[in-house]
Amino acid sequence: MSITLVTGGARSGKSRYAEKQVLISEAAGHGPVAYIATAIPFDDGMKDRIAKHQARRPKRWATVEQYKNFRTLLQHPAFAEAQTVLFDCLTVMITNQMMDLEKDWDHVSMERAGEIEEQILKDTADLLHAMALKRESYIVTNEVGMGLVPAYRMGNLFRDIAGRVNQMVAAEADRVVFCVSGIPMTIKNSGTFEKI
Fold first, then answer.
1. Is-contact 154 106, C-beta < 8 A?
2. Dihedral sign from CA coordinates of 156, 162, 168, 170
3. Burial of 173 (0-12, 13-18, 19+ CB in 10 A)
4. Distance CA 67, CA 7 (A)
């Protein structure tokens, strides 16, 4: 049982790397595979992105479309049957949950933002619990804290929440891979990570 977190910037090759690792796992006899898709096709750009991801992955992989309420994952037939799971991705999950939980991010209080973060962290803990029961699990996320500070309030709060969710998942993961320009670099193997 192992969890690998794959992180990096936009278009860094994270999803391709994770998909390749799942194919290797499947070839080693660790199938069937479940793919947990968190994206919602709300505009043409996202529809195009979803279509490209769908075209790239094997049809035999079962798709679970879910971005919240991960305590119910264990009851999903495709997830229950899977030995290897790919979750793509945490930051899209966070965005969707933030939009579900609050509509006016320009005027949200810090107390309410904190409550929302706690709810997202709890749901992420439920996800990690479910993923830890599988033979191999891969979680894709974006590293959003290495660029400019967002100029708008929701962007600021999103960056902070995503950073803390990523830290939580990285701390629990057995392995963390950081992708840069299509090059994967292992930055954590079990036992080599000091939590801050």
1. yes
2. negative
3. buried
4. 18
**Got the DSSP string for 63-93?**
EEE-SS-GGGGGGSHHHHH-SEEEEE-HHHH
Distance of CA 155 to the CA centre of its chain: 18
Q: In what order do the strands lie in the sheet with 62-65?
A: 62-65, 33-37, 84-88, 136-140, 2-8, 175-180, 183-189
pLDDT in tens, 95-149: 999 999 999 999 999 999 999 999 999 999 999 999 999 999 999 999 988 877 7
**Which residue among the candidates 53, 76, 107, 129 is catalytic per the annotation?**
53
Q: Give catalytic status of residue 53 as yes or no.
A: yes
Residue 177 near residue 183 (C-beta atoms within 8 A): no
Backbone angles phi, psi at 117, to 5 degrees: -60, -45
Provide CATH code, domain 2-189.
3.40.50.300
Domain residue spans in the chain?
2-189
Diameter over CA atoms, the chain: 51
Residues 6+ apart with CB under 8 A from 61: 22, 32, 33, 34, 35, 86
